[in-house]
Amino acid sequence: MKKHFWLFLVFLFFTSTVHAWSLFSSKEEHYPGMGGDFTLQSATGEISLKDFRGKIVLIYFGYTSCPDVCPTSLGALSAALKKLDKQEMAQIQPLFISVDPERDDVKKLQEYSHYFHPKMIGATGSLEYLQALAKRYGAYFRKAPVENSSLGYAIDHSSTIYVVGRDGKLVDMIQHGGSAKRILEHIRKALKE
Q1: Which of 70, 90, 132, 147 would be a feasible disulfide site paired with 62, CB 3.0-4.6 Å?
Q2: Rounded to 5 degrees, what are φ and ψ at 84?
Q3: Distance of CA 136 to the CA centre of its chain
Q4: pLDDT-derived band of residue 20, with 50, 70 and 90 as boundaries?
């Protein structure tokens, strides 16, 4: 019985030491292997994720001809951004990445992005580059033909706001359907980290 008691004490000591070490050791990644730097084209020229080090970057993959999902998500994001004070907003950079480079040129992207927030940057790249980038972030998109439509096709895509920390690492993901209040909570949590 005493042997089991001592083994139990050793186990407790070991687990508490490991837990204490994890609290004081370097911060672990929230989403290891996901996210990462990229370079895209915007109306003001080439932009890279590393250009925004020190800021919280909010990334959304979509396209300007999206009939409902993008406007809903970006509308909620816009409402959340409007609730931030000037000091908080100075630490935020929203990005809208178009996965429809065939139709979304940089001028169109700038107009569309600024409709939701004047600080939002619209950017895109080649289809191959966007496919690889989306995969790294866990995003999904594919071209879907639409019969009897002047658009010719739609883009089926996931709808997530990716929150990138000041160090350029993915720290959070806000799924579609999040209210402005919920999005604001996620943004403020990232600002405190």
Answers
A1: 70
A2: -80, 145
A3: 11
A4: very low
**pLDDT over 90 at 6, yes or no:** no
Please count the other Cβ atoms lying within 10 Å of the Cβ belonging to residue 161.
Answer: 23
Please state, in angstroms and rounded to a whole number, the distance separating the CA atoms of residues 12 and 165. Answer: 35
Q: Which residue has tokens 């350029």? A: 168
pLDDT at 31: 78
Q: How far apart are CA 103 and CA 158, in angstroms?
A: 19
State the pairing for strand pair 92-98/121-124.
Answer: parallel
Can you give the three-state secondary structure of the chain, one letter per residue? CHHHHHHHHHHHHHHHHHHHHHHHCCCCCCCCCCCCCCEEEECCEEEEHHHHCCCEEEEEEECCCCCCHHHHHHHHHHHHHHCCCHHHHCCEEEEEEECCCCCCCHHHHHHHHHHHCCCCEEEECCHHHHHHHHHHHCCCEEEEECCCCCCCEEEEECCEEEEECCCCCEEEEEECCCCHHHHHHHHHHHHHC
What was the pLDDT predicted at 48? 97
β partners of residue 61: 97
Strand partners, 95: 59, 121
